[in-house]
């Protein structure tokens, strides 16, 4: 980091935090009150038509929130929320039609309308999210789900009412106004809950997954598991909305579970403004109400206008109308670099359940035997044998294309290698996903700084602790508790004074340091670092060297360092391993390797390092 | 029992048309207009037929107003798009009943749209005349139907095919309430009359790939084919693919209308259709109706059909019921509706049978030039027990 | 025998529908959700030909050209700004599909349109009467597949495309104009979609939503195929046959979702699908 003046003092960031916390609270309270007021006073003000339309729009708005949480926040584009809504509504209508209607059965219907979509959501999540699945794939599956559900409804004959739907059952005994108020209160509750959740530490995990799924996995989180849970939970929420809808409208029809409705939800969310919660709510209310009032006049034109607006919006204003509004606020809000920042405190060392006792220094932390990796006929790595013990700092050197980064990947992803054995702390990593390997005590820093671009420095660091300190789903922790080593990195690099700054404003070097600090936050026993000093200034390099030495020599970690800067390697390594054309050609002390002829040959023949 | 004759009214209106348009509100019409809500699929699947339905309703309103309206009050149409589906229908019904505050709803809609609208009809307590053929058994004190149900459409077809000597039947349909309802009744009726169903297959409602079904049909040994698919694409693709595969069995299509059959050209030749209205009905009322439609809409005319004609007649039925009740009060109109008879293009129609109507059914066969020739007609076919609990 | 013919021709039709989508997915790494719209446009090209009284054979090149031209415009104005936002590209092409559908509705109405069959009637083939046109689709699929093989192996564009498929960064570093390759591929893919629409028109009806029904099955096939045309052929044969078998012996209703559901299950168990075939 350059010696440019620090952005703000630690003490100066305190008032700024209060300044931001206050409007947030006001926003929450304001939103809640406004929606509640709409719900309770609406029947006094509106005519019957508006009441009817708004009751439905408010239920749809609840669905738009679930779409926003999945797509806006977690980055999972879904057309499938209509399916869960439909299943919830049909479960309700089928119980009320075929079994009967009583308070007990209404309650049963509610349970079914929540549990069945939740189970379905889990199944859909399992289908959509696995190690190696792509975002497209999940989206296409989300398109498939409503199609299958609608097909089942059509095929259901009298049970589901087929194309005619079900009508004439007795729902809750509420008046029109009663349903309006109920829908309004539910929407207000869900909006506030969603707003609280997305600002909480647990909610930030969703944004982290959207930003950088790989980094999440290498912070010991399982993006797949989190997304599956999220899909199930939001399936349940959509099912609840379905229960409400089946009661309020008195009719269910196949189209409420169709992908066309699913896309409409996405359109509302996109136009309103993704990742804002309020945008989608207003988008759903506004567009659905407008279409009820206008589409009679010009049915085809209306859809054409909405479609064209949607395309233009995606290209020009991807964050929707809400972005225009918040952008205005943001400018008035002052320096964006001075965001909220909790004070740093030192965390007690994490317990490491099931890990081999650290005192056993003789047992290798990493043991690799005959490891190989090939792409088709092309062999990238072969016959790699390597053992690393606690306290060692091993540098991995070799020309470009020698297979260094590939080796790192084979050590942190149980499915990556093509042959051979790899054990960490005595455990085979066969079939383990990165998050499970991280749980064994491994931390990996990537060659290109891998951090979360939409979070602040403090939030990034908090993400690194999520696998250790369970994040709260409703609050943001008062303090930022990190291991001493991580705090030291922050101090040495000046990042401790920039905790509230958005990561997107950091320099390249600062991002590298931040990522290192995040890896150290995991309290790993084995750290893999891929060119941690690339592009850093001499001072920064020295800082990182000092940190690494401390971690290995004093705290008993082991580290593998991929590095091109041979001076740096010589300074800090306890051992050097040379990789050439996919083979491990040398493994010895610094002196032995640096003076060996082999290395000289490789480097003179293999081009510049 | 009151009997309203439409065609003298037509003759009168044809004469006084120019006058009526010129003098506008010069009639002895006092009081507010009686508002008729028409929720219809201007967009979505029904948008193909919806314009013809609206035109028929417009003609009926114009003719009634030309005669001085109902109880001295003019009729007024309020059309709303139901997007051919449930969600759109909810909006359309809410808008018509609670915002426009119409006195009655008269329309042709999909079953899903009708069902979705019914709760609003019950809450708003307005009479609702449904003018589309459907799978039957939709019952509400507010709901009247003047179009056919399976019990009326299927027997003419099966009777005809039986007489031609076909005893083994294959049934093909789209998997939705109408398709299933029609074919289930057909299977029952075939069994009752001594025939045999050798196979039945359904495709999803939007399905258009009939390959496997056609192969099954060809190997089944069937002597006749009865189909009931969703309108539009499924219907057209089935016929095309049947012809493409060289199937030349006697073929009754319960879902095709005259216009589609004509547009399909040579592929449709020989198809049997069963309906309560075909343009070729030879009656004074039908001729007058067709002339009036041509005069009113000219180039813009959408060919009248089995969905638009019931719409036309239903407006007259409502007008007659209001005359009889002496008021637009819902309870009184509902009591009068089953008792009034309208003589329209389809003949005499009274919705006297559990809110449904006995109808004259026509069996037609598509000719090589696309026209439909009436093979035989069946008078006063009873809709059966549609709503025994009403 | 009929069953075997049904299976092969169904696979051929699926291949025709999905090939344009695969070309775009392979090179641009985005899924073109407007694929259904181009299919529909192709169908309407056949309608226009029929109305103008031109021989239906001409509708095939016309549909390809119109599809490619519209594809070029789409690539330039909608897809290109969104290359680094692939999920947004999905949404934008989806929205474009809505717009195209509505424009067609405004222009031609919602009605089902009729086209003349290129090859009407049935022929006696291997002892059974079989639809001549379905047999023709088999030939068309072989021509398209063969054309792709030639294009990829024998032309500069093919070579560039393969380079981009394998490693775009490297291709760019080697001085390939990847933007041009992308534009050309997108035009080719959209053109193929239009061609598929025209080819389908004798089998299905032409209406503003005709493309939508094919979308999900085609998406899943492309996912299962990875970036390989051989993979697509295998996926079409396998899942197309499964669809015919399920439709014939179990239920045509289940048959309609067989392709998509089976593809999804296969991908779940074997994430690489048939890409190494």
UniProtKB/TrEMBL annotation, chain A:
One of its GO terms (cellular component) is plasma membrane. The keyword Ribonucleoprotein does not apply. PROSITE patterns: ABC_TRANSPORTER_2. It is a multi-pass membrane protein. Residues 366-606 form the ABC transporter domain. It holds the Pfam family ABC_tran. InterPro entries: AAA+_ATPase (IPR003593), ABC_AA/LPS_Transport (IPR051120), ABC_transp_permease (IPR001851), ABC_transporter-like_ATP-bd (IPR003439), LivM-like (IPR043428), P-loop_NTPase (IPR027417). It is found in: Cell membrane. The keyword Membrane applies. Keywords: ATP-binding, Cell membrane, Membrane, Nucleotide-binding, Transmembrane, Transmembrane helix, Transport. The chain crosses the membrane at residues 25-46, 58-77, 82-99, 105-124, 136-158, 178-198, 228-246, 300-325. Its main location: membrane. PANTHER family: CONSERVED COMPONENT OF ABC TRANSPORTER FOR NATURAL AMINO ACIDS-RELATED. This is Amino acid/amide ABC transporter membrane protein 2, HAAT family /amino acid/amide ABC transporter ATP-binding protein 1, HAAT family. It comes from Albimonas donghaensis.
From TrEMBL, chain B:
It holds the Pfam family Peripla_BP_6. Residues 1-28 form the signal peptide. The keyword Transport applies. This is Amino acid/amide ABC transporter substrate-binding protein, HAAT family. CDD domains: PBP1_AmiC-like. Transmembrane segments: none annotated. GO terms for biological process: amino acid transport. Belongs to the leucine-binding protein family. Residues 33-370 form the Leucine-binding protein domain. Keywords: Amino-acid transport, Signal, Transport. It comes from Albimonas donghaensis. Gene3D superfamilies: 3.40.50.2300. It comes from the Bacteria. The keyword Nucleus does not apply.
UniProtKB/TrEMBL annotation, chain C:
Pfam families: BPD_transp_2 (PF02653). GO terms for molecular function: transmembrane transporter activity. Keywords: Amino-acid transport, Cell membrane, Membrane, Transmembrane, Transmembrane helix, Transport. The keyword 4Fe-4S does not apply. It is a multi-pass membrane protein. It is found in: Cell membrane. The chain crosses the membrane at residues 6-28, 60-79, 91-110, 130-152, 181-200, 212-239, 246-267. GO terms for biological process: amino acid transport. Signal peptide: none annotated. Belongs to the binding-protein-dependent transport system permease family. LivHM subfamily. This is Amino acid/amide ABC transporter membrane protein 1, HAAT family. It comes from Albimonas donghaensis.
């Amino acid at each position: 980091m350059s010696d440019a003046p620090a952005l703000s003092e630690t003490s100066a960031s305190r008032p700024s935090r209060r300044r931001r916390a206050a409007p947030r609270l006001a926003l929450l309270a304001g939103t809640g009150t406004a929606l509640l007021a709409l719900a309770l006073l609406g029947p006094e003000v509106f005519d019957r038509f508006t009441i009817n339309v708004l009751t439905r729009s408010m239920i749809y708005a609840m669905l738009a929130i679930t779409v926003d949480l999945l797509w806006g926040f977690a980055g999972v584009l879904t057309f499938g929320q209509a399916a869960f809504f439909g299943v919830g509504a049909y479960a309700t209508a089928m119980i009320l039609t075929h079994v009967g209607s009583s308070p007990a059965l209404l309650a049963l219907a509610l349970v079914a309308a929540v549990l069945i979509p939740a189970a379905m959501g889990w199944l859909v999540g399992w289908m959509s999210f696995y190690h190696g699945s792509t975002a497209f794939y999940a989206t296409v599956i989300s398109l498939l789900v409503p199609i299958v559900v609608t097909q089942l409804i059509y095929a259901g004959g009298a049970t589901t009412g087929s194309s005619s739907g079900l009508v004439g059952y007795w729902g809750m005994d509420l008046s029109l106004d009663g349903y309006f108020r109920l829908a309004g209160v539910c929407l207000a509750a869900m909006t506030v809950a969603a707003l609280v959740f997305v600002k909480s530490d647990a909610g930030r995990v969703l944004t982290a997954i959207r930003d950088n799924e790989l980094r999440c996995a290498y912070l010991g989180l399982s993006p797949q598991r989190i997304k599956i849970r999220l899909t199930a939970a939001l399936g349940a929420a959509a099912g609840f909305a379905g229960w409400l809808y089946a009661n309020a409208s008195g009719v269910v029809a196949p189209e409420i579970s169709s992908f066309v409705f699913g896309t409409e939800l996405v359109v509302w969310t996109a136009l309103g403004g993704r990742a804002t919660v309020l945008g989608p709510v207003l988008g759903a209310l506004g567009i659905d109400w407008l279409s009820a009032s206008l589409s009679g006049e010009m049915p085809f034109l209306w859809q054409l206008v909405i479609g064209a607006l949607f395309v233009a919006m995606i290209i020009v204003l991807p964050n929707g109308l809400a972005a225009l509004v918040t952008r205005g606020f943001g400018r008035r809000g002052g320096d964006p670099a001075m965001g909220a920042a909790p004070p740093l405190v030192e965390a007690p060392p994490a317990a490491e359940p099931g890990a081999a006792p650290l005192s056993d220094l003789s047992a290798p932390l990493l043991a690799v035997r005959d490891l190989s990796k090939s792409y088709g006929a092309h062999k990238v790595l072969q016959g790699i044998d390597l053992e690393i013990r606690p306290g060692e700092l091993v540098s991995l050197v070799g020309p470009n294309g020698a297979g260094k980064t590939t080796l790192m990947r084979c050590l942190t992803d149980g499915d990556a290698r093509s042959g051979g054995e790899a054990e960490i702390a005595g455990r085979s990593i066969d079939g383990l996903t990165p998050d499970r390997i991280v749980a064994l005590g491994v931390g990996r820093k990537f060659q290109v700084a891998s951090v979360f671009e939409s979070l602040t420095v403090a939030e990034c660091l908090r993400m690194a602790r999520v696998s250790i300190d369970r994040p709260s789903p409703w609050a943001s922790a008062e303090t930022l508790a990190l291991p001493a080593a991580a705090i030291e990195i922050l101090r040495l690099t000046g990042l401790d004074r920039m905790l509230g700054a958005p990561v997107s404003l950091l320099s390249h070097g600062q991002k590298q340091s931040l990522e290192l600090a995040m890896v150290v936050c995991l309290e790993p026993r084995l750290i893999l670092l891929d060119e941690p000093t690339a592009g850093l200034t001499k001072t920064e390099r020295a800082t990182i060297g000092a940190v690494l030495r401390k971690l290995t020599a004093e705290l008993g970690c082991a580290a593998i360092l991929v590095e091109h800067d041979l001076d740096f390697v010589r300074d800090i390594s306890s051992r050097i391993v040379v990789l050439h054309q996919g083979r491990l050609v040398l493994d010895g002390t610094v002196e032995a390797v640096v003076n060996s002829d082999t290395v000289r040959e490789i480097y003179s023949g293999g081009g510049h390092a | 029992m009151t009997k309203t004759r439409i065609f003298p009214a037509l003759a009168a209106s044809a004469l006084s048309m120019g006058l009526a348009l010129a003098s506008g509100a010069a009639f002895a019409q006092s009081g507010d207009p009686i508002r008729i809500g028409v929720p219809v699929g201007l967009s979505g699947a029904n948008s193909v037929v919806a314009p013809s339905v609206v035109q028929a309703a417009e003609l009926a309103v114009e003719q009634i107003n030309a005669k001085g309206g109902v109880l001295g009050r003019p009729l007024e149409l309020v059309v709303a798009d139901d997007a051919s589906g449930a969600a759109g229908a909810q909006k359309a019904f809410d808008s018509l009943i609670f915002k426009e505050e119409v006195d009655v709803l008269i329309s042709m809609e999909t079953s899903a749209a009708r069902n979705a609208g019914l709760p609003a009809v019950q809450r708003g307590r307005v009479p609702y005349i449904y003018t589309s053929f459907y799978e039957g058994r939709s019952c509400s004190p507010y709901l009247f139907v003047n179009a056919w149900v399976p019990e009326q459409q299927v027997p003419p077809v099966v009777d005809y095919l039986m007489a031609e000597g076909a005893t083994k039947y294959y049934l093909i349909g789209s998997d939705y309430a109408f398709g299933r309802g029609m074919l289930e009744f057909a299977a029952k009726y075939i069994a009752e009359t001594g025939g045999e169903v050798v196979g039945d297959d359904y495709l999803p409602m939007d399905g258009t790939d009939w390959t496997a079904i056609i192969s099954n049909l060809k190997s089944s040994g069937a002597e006749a084919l009865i189909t009931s698919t969703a309108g539009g694409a499924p219907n057209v693709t089935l016929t095309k693919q049947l012809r493409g595969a060289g199937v030349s069995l006697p073929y009754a299509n319960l879902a095709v209308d005259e216009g589609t059959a004509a547009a399909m050209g040579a592929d449709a030749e020989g198809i049997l259709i069963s309906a309560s209205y075909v343009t070729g009905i030879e009656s004074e009322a039908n001729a007058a109706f067709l002339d009036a439609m041509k005069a009113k809409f000219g180039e813009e005319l959408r060919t009248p059909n089995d969905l638009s004609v019931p719409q036309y007649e239903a407006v007259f039925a409502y007008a007659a019921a209001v005359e009889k009740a002496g008021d637009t009060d819902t309870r009184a109109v509902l009591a009068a509706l089953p008792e009034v008879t309208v003589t329209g293009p389809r003949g005499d129609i009274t919705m006297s049978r559990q809110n449904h109507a006995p109808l004259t059914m026509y069996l037609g066969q598509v000719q090589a030039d696309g026209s439909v020739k009436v093979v035989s007609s069946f008078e006063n076919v009873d809709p059966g027990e549609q709503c025994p609990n009403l | 025998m009929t069953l075997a013919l049904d299976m092969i021709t169904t696979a051929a039709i699926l291949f025709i529908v999905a090939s344009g989508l695969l070309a775009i997915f392979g090179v641009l790494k985005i899924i073109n959700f407007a694929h259904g719209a181009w299919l529909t446009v192709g169908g309407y090209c056949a309608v226009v030909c029929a109305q103008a009284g031109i021989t239906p054979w001409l509708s095939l090149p016309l549909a390809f050209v119109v599809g490619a031209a519209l594809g070029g415009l789409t690539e330039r104005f909608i897809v290109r700004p969104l290359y680094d936002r692939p999920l947004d590209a999905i949404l934008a092409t989806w929205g474009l599909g809505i717009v195209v559908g509505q424009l067609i509705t405004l222009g031609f109405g919602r009605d089902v349109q009729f086209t003349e069959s290129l090859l009407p009637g049935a022929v006696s083939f291997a002892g059974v009467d079989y639809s001549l046109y379905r047999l023709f689709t088999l030939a068309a699929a072989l021509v398209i597949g063969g054309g792709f093989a030639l294009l990829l192996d024998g032309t500069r564009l093919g070579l560039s495309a393969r380079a981009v498929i394998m490693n775009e960064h490297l291709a760019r570093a080697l001085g390939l104009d990847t933007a041009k390759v992308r534009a050309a591929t997108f035009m080719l893919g959209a053109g193929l979609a239009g061609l598929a629409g025209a080819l389908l028109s004798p089998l299905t009806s032409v209406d503003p939503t005709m493309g939508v029904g094919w979308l999900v099955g085609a998406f899943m096939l492309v996912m299962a195929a990875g970036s390989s045309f051989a993979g697509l052929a295998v996926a079409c044969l396998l899942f197309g046959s499964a669809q015919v078998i399920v439709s014939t012996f179990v239920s045509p209703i289940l048959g309609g979702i067989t392709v998509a559901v089976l593809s999804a299950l296969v991908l779940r168990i074997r994430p690489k699908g048939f890409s190494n075939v």
